[in-house]
Amino acid sequence: MNISIITVGKLKEKYLKQGIDEYAKRLSAYAKIDIIEVPDEKAPEVLSDAEMIKVKEKEGERILSKIGQDTYVIALAINGKMKSSEQLAADLDKLATYGKSKIAFVIGGSLGLSDTVLRRADEKLSFSPMTFPHQLMRLILVEQVYRSFRINRGEPYHK
């Protein structure tokens, strides 16, 4: 299985990089993992609604340029479906069983994802109704994907 994590912005925090690198290394025993960063759109602190939409659209174009036609897209969105770790594992296993070998998880920038990206998504996934920094979501996501493969293989993993 080929898993891409497409995310807006550069990761600067060393401690997050270390955690992501560790889980990506562990995950590489089960799947090919690729973390793709697209540049965030520079914008002032205070934006009008129209300016926010424009920023998300530009970031969305960059995201969509990294997604192939045959890729199953899971967008991280607050209004997405919440799942347990076991449900995520079962869903990833089902995708693999039915020939979906390319999966892209998409994490938007600080303003979220454009409507275009959300329409392209095959599903929307929420980790919580809370808002998390998108940089931290990378670490949480890669850990949960790793956990999914451990669950699917029946291998022990702390609960």
Describe the structure.
It is found in: Cytoplasm. This protein has 159 residues and is α/β, with parallel strands linked by helices. It has a single domain, classed as SPOUT methyltransferase, trefoil knot domain (Alpha/beta knot). It has helices at 14-27, 49-64, 85-97, 115-120, 134-152, and strands at residues 2-8, 32-38, 72-82, 102-107, 123-126. Helix 1 (14-27) runs parallel beside helix 5 and helix 3 crosses helix 5. The radius of gyration is 15 Å and the shape is globular. The relative contact order is 0.24. The mean pLDDT is 94.
**Biggest sheet architecture:** 5 strands, parallel
The pLDDT mean sits at 94
Find the structural class using helix and strand composition: alpha/beta
CATH architecture: 3-Layer(aba) Sandwich
Amino-to-carboxy terminus distance? 25 Å
- How many H/I helices? 5
Strand order of the largest sheet: 2-1-4-3-5
Order of helices and strands: EHEHEHEHEH
- Text of the CATH class: Alpha Beta
Oligomer: single chain
Strand content: 15-25%
CATH homologous superfamily annotation? SPOUT methyltransferase, trefoil knot domain
Helix content: 40-55%
In angstroms, what is the radius of gyration? 15 Å
Shape descriptor:
globular
Number of strands: 5
Number of domains: 1
CATH topology: Alpha/beta knot
Enzyme class: transferase
EC number: 2.1.1.177
Main location: cytoplasm
Subunit structure: Homodimer.
Write the layout of secondary structure elements.
Elements: E1 2-8, H1 14-27, E2 32-38, H2 49-64, E3 72-82, H3 85-97, E4 102-107, H4 115-120, E5 123-126, H5 134-152
Helix pairs in contact: 1-5, 3-5
Enzyme class: transferase
InterPro entries: Alpha/beta_knot_MTases, RlmH-like, tRNA_m1G_MTases_N
Catalytic activity: pseudouridine(1915) in 23S rRNA + S-adenosyl-L-methionine = N(3)-methylpseudouridine(1915) in 23S rRNA + S-adenosyl-L-homocysteine + H(+)
